[in-house]
Write a structure and sequence with these properties.
By secondary structure, the protein is of the alpha/beta class. It has helices at residues 13-23, 37-45, 62-74, 89-97, 110-121, 129-137, 156-166, 171-178, 182-195, 201-210; strands spanning 4-9, 28-34, 52-56, 79-84, 102-105. Strand 1, helix 1 and strand 2 (28-34) form a beta-alpha-beta unit.
Length: 228
């Protein structure tokens, strides 16, 4: 199986060289390098074929967030992972909303980096656990994110289920909480995944975090019979 082609975007050349050596022999190959997002966009527009983008998360401007959206549009089937040296939850949330598939802190171990990248290439979302904790607790604001159509097309039941997924609830727990059958949960979950273009529960939970569901509890239904 050929190595995953990687575009590495980081202003620090020494860091790029180190990461290139680290990934060699791990089924990842740095096929392009850039100092910033705009330069990376130019490489892709010029014909560079990549499957994974590793992007240094150091910008502060809305312009660079928009450039990230452009990169996302250019690589609809690719993966984009942020590499962050420090923790700025709101910037990370904005970048995830702009199309990033995850975020990794630069101080993680080499083994953790490789494993995380493998998960990303399998379709999983990866990001720091402390970011998830802040989101779920509601201690950071997701309401300012520019996603007016985030909930468009979701039924009331699907909204309730996606909130339950944020708690890591199993189908059985969701069924008991919403007073419906597990079979009904599965039907709604399948529809939900299709609508938000997610392939599993983990991706659905990440989507919910990114779209401001974290501070809204699932609603307990009143009927006693198990219905859909």
């Amino acid at each position: 199986m050929p190595p995953v082609q990687v575009l590495l975007i980081d202003h620090n050349k020494l860091f790029r060289e180190g990461l290139k050596l680290l990934l060699s022999g791990e089924k990842f190959e740095i096929s392009g390098e850039a100092q910033n997002v705009a330069e990376g966009v130019s490489l892709v527009q010029g014909g560079l074929k990549v499957e994974l983008v590793l992007l240094d998360m150091t910008w502060n401007s809305d312009t660079e967030t928009e450039t990230l959206r452009t990169l996302r549009d250019l690589l609809p089937d690719g993966r984009i992972v942020l590499l962050a040296a420090d923790m700025d939850p709101q910037r990370l949330i904005s970048a995830l909303a702009a199309g990033a598939d995850g975020c990794l802190m630069k101080d993680l171990s080499a083994d953790a980096l490789i494993q995380s990248l493998r998960l990303v290439m399998m379709g999983e979302k990866v990001f720091p656990t402390h970011l998830a904790a802040l989101l779920i607790s509601g201690r950071i604001n997701t309401s300012t994110m520019d996603m007016p159509s985030a909930r468009k097309g979701l039924s009331q039941r699907e909204v309730q289920i996606v909130r339950c997924l944020l708690n890591g609830d199993s189908n059985k727990v969701v069924a008991n909480h919403l007073n419906i059958t597990e079979a009904t949960v599965k039907v709604h979950l399948k529809s939900l995944l299709r609508k938000i273009n997610a392939t599993n529960r983990t991706q659905a939970a990440i989507w919910a975090l990114n779209n401001g569901f974290a501070s809204e509890p699932a609603q307990q239904q009143q009927p006693t019979s198990k219905v859909g």
